[in-house]
Amino acid sequence: MHDFTTLTTLAVTVFMGFFAMMNPIANTAVFVGMTASKSPQKTRAIAFKALFCAFCIVAAFSLLGKGIFSLFGITLPALRLAGGILVFLVGYHMLQGNQSKIHTSQQATKVAIQNEEDEGDIAISPLALPILAGPGTLATAMNYSASGDITHIFITIGAFAILCGITFVCFLTGPKLVEKIGEGGISIITRLMGLILTVIGMQMLIQGVHDAIQLYVPVGS
User: Fold this and answer.
1) CA distance 40 to 195
2) Which site from 59, 72, 132, 167 is most exposed, i.e. has the minimal number of CB atoms within 10 Å?
3) CA-to-CA distance for 123 and 85, rounded, in angstroms?
């Protein structure tokens, strides 16, 4: 049985981890730049398809995480160590006021803005991958669901679904939101999210080292 307080704490932790990684406010600015020449109907279609694809990708990794580990012989400590490093690097770049190249594809974004692609192409790449469901987001999802506990898996998927809903609203109100917050506000939010991510990454690293010691170091040695 899971304690309600423990589950609530886990849900908040997972949500904040996803929120910091996806950074809906900063991604809204990217989305507005990519869809500036689109009609409201196409903009809505792009936002929905991008977020739906991102949700499906994260849900798949959350559900299949344990199977992927078994297939490739990956241990949970290895995921937490690698994921911790990855999340820490993303957070470090954001803390400097930059979007990490690990998490987003600036070149892909430039190509999408320069070329008038249809909404399906833009929604899937670069929006869904790698901007919304990048390596950092997938590592975060697998870290919280990799134990195989069905409760943890559902909490992870549910938290990401809520975040997708929030991001969808941000995308639809993008121009007004970006105008009100301004570049300075977006920069401050990005740095705050970066700080949260560096702490989450370090916690994943600490947990990974702890788990690795318990797994590989004989008791009493």
Assistant:
1) 35
2) 72
3) 28
Answer yes or no: is 44 within a domain: yes
Tokens representing residue 183 in the block:
């570049």
Residue among 211, 208, 173, 219 at smallest CA distance from 24 = 173
pTM (two decimals) = 0.78
Position 2 in a domain:
no
Which one, of 139, 158, 124, lies nearest residue 53 by Cα?
A: 124
CA 57, CA 64: separation in Å to the nearest integer? Answer: 11
Q: Which amino acid is at 188?
A: I
Are 124 and 53 in contact by the 8 Å Cβ rule? The answer is yes
Q: What is the pLDDT of residues 83-102, one digit of tens each?
A: 888 888 888 888 887 655 54
Domain of 210, in residue numbers: 22-215
pLDDT in tens, 137-152: 888 888 888 766 888 8
Torsion of the alpha carbons at 152, 155, 161 and 164, rounded to the nearest 10 = -90
Number of domains in the chain: 1
Residue 168 lies in a domain: yes
Nearest to 53 by CA among 106, 132, 109, 110: 132
Please provide the distance, in angstroms rounded to a whole number, between the alpha carbons at the two ends of the chain.
Answer: 33
Sequence-distant (6+) residues with CB within 8 A of 157 are: 58, 59, 62, 63, 145
Alpha carbon 42 to its chain centroid, in Å, reads 24
Helix (H, G, I), strand (E, B), or coil: what is residue 35?
A: coil
